[in-house]
């Protein structure tokens, strides 16, 4: 079964700036590729994603084209840096725009996000990864995504230091192991859901 993944990189830094968030998100996509999953990435800040909770906020809003990639994929990788112990404002905007999925259903009453797996990536040189993943998991599940076991990989640097993930000489073994587990579980769950969809939620 052919599976696809889309990573939404919610860094605050526009291209072509280096991004620790992109580095770890790409490592997730690379691990997913080992399970036959084809992946791509979007740096959200490079696009004019308007504030709001509608499918299309009009006037040049670029969220609809990003949403198309999300809906076409089996796995969503939501990747965010840590700022002041919180997920980025770009990540919050993505979650807010995904709220519109609550109004989109198939002919059997299921949200279009049902059957899609979501995982979370967090980087930062301060604490906050567990808090951020908890917020993201709840938001993603609210709008229909399924979270696999071990659904987050993260790196927290030493508090109050200036070292970023992209500055490390290599990937820490614990991060690499967690990323591999995340990818394997996400691909496994996505395959199961693609083969056996959730039951109808309304009478056809």
TrEMBL record:
Protein name (record): NAD(P)H-dependent oxidoreductase
Domain of life: Bacteria
Residue span(s) of domain NADPH-dependent FMN reductase-like: 15-147
Cross-referenced Pfam families: FMN_red
Species of the source: Terrabacter carboxydivorans
InterPro entries associated with the record: Flavoprotein-like_sf, FMN_Rdtase-like_dom
């Amino acid at each position: 079964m052919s599976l696809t993944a889309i990573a939404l990189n919610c860094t605050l830094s526009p291209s072509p700036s280096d991004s620790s968030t992109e580095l770890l998100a790409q490592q997730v996509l690379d691990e997913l590729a080992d399970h036959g999953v084809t992946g791509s990435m979007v740096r959200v800040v490079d696009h004019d994603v308007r504030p709001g909770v509608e499918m299309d906020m009009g006037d040049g809003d670029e969220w609809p084209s990003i949403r198309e990639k999300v809906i076409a994929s089996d796995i969503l990788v939501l990747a965010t840096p840590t700022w002041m112990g919180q997920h980025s404002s770009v990540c919050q905007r993505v979650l807010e725009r995904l709220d519109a999925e609550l109004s989109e259903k198939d002919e059997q009453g299921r949200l279009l996000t049902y059957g899609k797996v979501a995982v979370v990536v967090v980087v930062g040189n301060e604490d906050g990864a567990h808090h951020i993943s908890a917020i993201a998991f709840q938001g993603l599940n609210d709008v229909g995504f399924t979270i696999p076991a071990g659904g987050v990989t993260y790196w927290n640097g030493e508090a109050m230091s200036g070292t970023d993930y992209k500055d490390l000489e290599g990937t820490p073994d614990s991060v690499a192991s967690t990323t591999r587990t995340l990818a394997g579980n996400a691909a496994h769950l996505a395959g199961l859901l693609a083969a056996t969809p959730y039951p109808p939620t309304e009478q056809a």
